[in-house]
Every structure is written in C-alpha cells, then in structure tokens.
Amino acid sequence: MPIAFALGIGSLFALFADPNTPLVLIPQRMFVALDSWPLMAIPLFMLAGVLMDKGGISQKIVDFSSACLGFVRGSLGMITVAASMVFAGISGSSTADTAAVGSILLPAMKKKGYDMRFATALQAAAGAIGPIIPPSILMIILGYVTDTSVARLFLGGIIPGLMIGLSLMIIAFVHGMRGGTAYLSPDKFNIKEVLRTGGMALPGLGLPFIIVFGILGGIFTATEAAVVAVIYGLFVGMFVYKKISVRDLPKIFIRAAEISCVVMFIASTAFLFAWLITVKQLPVVLGDYLQEHIVGKIMFLVLLNIILLVIGMFMESFSAIIVFMPILFPIARGFGIDPVHFGIIASVNLAIGYITPPYGATLFVSCSLSGESIRKVTPKLGPIILAMIIVLLIVTYIPETFMWIPNLMAD
Helix 191-216 crosses helix 41-54 at what angle (to 10 degrees)? Predict the structure, then answer.
C-alpha cells in the first residue's frame, strides 16, 4: 500500500476506535496541514525543476561537467555526481534529479562499458544529494514541522552536500583506476570547450546562486525564492534556450502538478497521523522516557543517527519528517542542539535512506533507468554508504564545518 494511504487509513481506524472524536476532523486536519505559506514553496520548486529540465538545462549541465572532468580516468562517474549536484540546486527533488541526469549518463556509461551495477549505485547516491543542497523540498517540510527557518536550513545544507559530492567523486575515481580500458578517457582538457559549454550552461547555473545569495542577503524568503525560480526557469526555457513554447506550458504545468500532488498527499495524511499521536500524548511519553534514560548530548546524537538511519530504510522521507520530528526535535532542543544542526543531521540521514533497501527511492529510479536489479546493485552500495556515513559523523560531531554559513544570516 502506498505510504500516503497507509498513514491515512491507519489514522481513520484509530479515530474509529475513539467514539468521542468526530470523523470530520480528518478533512479538517488534512486541509489545515497544507494551508501553509512555507509549504507553498514545494509545488513552486517542483514547477521550476520541470521548467528547467524541459528547457534543456540538464543536457547543458552534463555538457559543461563533461568538459571540466572528461579528461580524468573514470570521468563519467564523476560527471554524474557533478551534474547531479548542480541539478539538485535547481529541482529540489532527489527523484527528479536522479531521473534527469540518469536518463542521460547511465546509457552513456553502458555504451562505454562501465560496470552498470556500480554506475547505477553511484547515480542513486548522486541523486540522493538533492535533499541536502538547496533548494530542498525535504528541508521545507522539516522547517515547517520544527518551526525552523527554511532559509537557514538551505544555507546549512551547502557544505554537507558538497562534502558528500566530493566523497562520491573520489569513489568514482578510485573505481575508475581499478577498472579496465572502459574507464580510460580519450579526451584532453580543453579550456575553450570549458568556456563554451560553461557559457551555454551559465543561465541554468545562475539559479542556485540567485537563490542562495538572495536568501543570504535578505532579499527574499525561501517561498519567495521559489517564485523567483519559476519566473527564472520560464524565462530561460522560453527566451534563452528556446526549448519551451507556449504550447508546451499546459503539459509542463500538469506534470508539475502531478509530482507536487504526490508529495502534498503524503504530507497531508502524515500531518493527520502526527496530529493524532500528538493528541494521544505519545511524543510526551516517549520524550520523557528518552530524557530519563539518555545521559548526555553525545549519547543522544548516537541514538538519533541510529533511529533516523533505520527509519530512512523503511519509510518515505517526507512522512518520516512529519511523524517523527515532533517527537525527536523537542528532545534535541532539551540537549541544547541548534535547530539548524538538528535539521541537517536529519536531512543527511534521510538522504542515506534514499539509497538503502528496502525503500530506497532514488535506488528504485536509478535501477529502472539502467535495467539492473536492486539485488545486484546493493553490494556496490557498500563504499558509497560508508562515505556518506563518514560525512554524517562530521556533520553530527563537528557542526562548525557548516554552521558558519547559516550563522551569517540573522534569524
């Protein structure tokens, strides 16, 4: 059963069991959950991502990444990571990132003779960076649930996202060095080609900088940044790359609405479920129990990472945020953990969940694009997950590595 239906029907049966609770609360709570200014950014960023993808930006990003890294042994793997990182700064969605870049580069790696099990695993992990690098749909929901500044969460995700991307590039390079002739690159570094493809990709590459510096400079909020992204994406697609015509707009709007509705439907039933467990005082009971048995901040952070890693393996990330953050966040605040620090820890953990079976959203997308089975791809995830966990440990226990950026922005 899809997670949205599971949460909604589970909540329905729970309300049936309590004759004192009117069922009219179901539509009321679902509507109230979505009647939110911060959540308005979700469909807008989804629309911006579709506009930029249909406008040809994904191919331009791949071309530019190829010009920059194409001379390195095993370069296609590194290009996959680099292109995914850039596209993550446009779409805000991990699955959209995986599909857009993977549809171009996975066939190229197959044609080149790459080990497609590794290529599929690498593309899934590269797509999983989407929830960390701003703009992030996951962080929008996280900020709404925990009443944390979405803009500061966006800024906090920059360095952890770059760290994960760099670690994946190193893994791709090492894999290429160990591989055969398929990983040799006949290309040479050509500064003219870098400048040419960079110039072509510049309109798309400009969007992440506009969003980050616009938020950092206090020009607009995260939700207003989503509006800017839509207008920018529409302008680039129609007047710069000229890949979008007026006749294409209805299909683009419908596609954006479809993928937005999936997220919002999950959010509405998850908020209903979260409200139900809050009314039944489960967060209070569990919070008191944890605070009673956990000694110190370090022990809580260890437990937090274990809990979130396990949750990410079995539960869709948006639902996990809405259901579990109201329980874990007050405890974290009790131990003096900064809300942005907590949010980045949660985001990195759930990003790892995107590639870990049995759920693994980007893993499913990547496997569907390459035609490889999850059973064959999973063993290749070992070093990738290890690298992401190392970054998670740095983020958890050395927050100074990234917190200086959101601290530049006043609350």
Answer: 170
Residue range of the domain that includes 80: 3-408
Distance CA 147, CA 145 (A): 6
H runs (alpha helix) in 55-136: 57-69, 75-91, 94-112, 116-127
Residue 211's contacts (CB-CB under 8 Å, 6 or more residues apart) are 89, 134, 135, 154, 225, 228, 229
Which amino acid would we find at residue 267?
Answer: A
**Tokens 């759930």, residue located:** 350
State the Rg of the chain over Cα. 21
Q: Hey, what amino acid is at 134?
A: P
* Domains identified in the chain, total number: 1
Digit-coded pLDDT (tens) for 191-215: 999 899 989 888 877 877 887 788 7
Distances in Å between the alpha carbon of 213 and those of 38, 202, 339? 19, 16, 21
Q: Are 179 and 77 in contact (CB under 8 A)?
A: no
3-state secondary structure of 192: helix
Q: At which residue do the structure tokens 């992990």 appear?
A: 125
Tell me which residues of the chain have a pLDDT lower than 70.
Answer: 92, 180-182, 186, 283, 410-411
Answer yes or no: are the C-beta atoms of 58 and 87 closer than 8 Å.
Answer: yes
Q: Which pTM does this prediction carry?
A: 0.81
The pLDDT of residue 121 is 95
CB 207 within 8 A of CB 22: no
